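W.,

You were right to be curious about this one. When I first looked at the sequence I had no strong expectations either way, so I just let the prediction run and decided to look at it fresh. Below is the sequence, 164 residues in total, followed by the output.
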Amino acid sequence: MYINIGNCYKEMGEYDKAIEIYTKILEKVKEEKESIGGDETAARALAGMGEAYFKQGNLEKASEYFRQAIDGFPEDETLAFNVGEIFFKQGETDKAIEYFLLAVKINESWAPPHRQVGYAYLNKGKYRLAVDSLKKFVELAPDDPQTENIKNLIPKLEELIKDN
């Protein structure tokens, strides 16, 4: 399909054109399957639309499309994680936490969302929750390149918890 074309427009900052392409993808999926639910391409198109609206500053519409994407393809932890990453990069920490936790719920043994939710909790000053998430990341990904830094961070956070 044309998902990559929509993604290219989105990356170039041509959000209206990207949304137009994503809309055509959704129409094509509906035409072929009568429903977009459970279709990975449709979920990616919806997420692309969400990101385009997000970059335009329309958080309400962005959230609506992100939610539709995840509702339509709820077993995709990568989709939930990527939505969390978008919100995290834009400083929307509470929304990021929501999506990272959803990724954890979908696949508890996948390490990256544990790390990211730990960082998000750290940004919010919720050190106990950060430590718990970061410890889970270390447990699941002992060979990850970031694990050593996280192992060094955890005792410092535990000191902060004791001091409070």
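Here's what jumped out at me. The mean pLDDT is 93. And, maybe more interesting for your project: The chain has nine helices and no strands.

Coffee later to discuss?

I.
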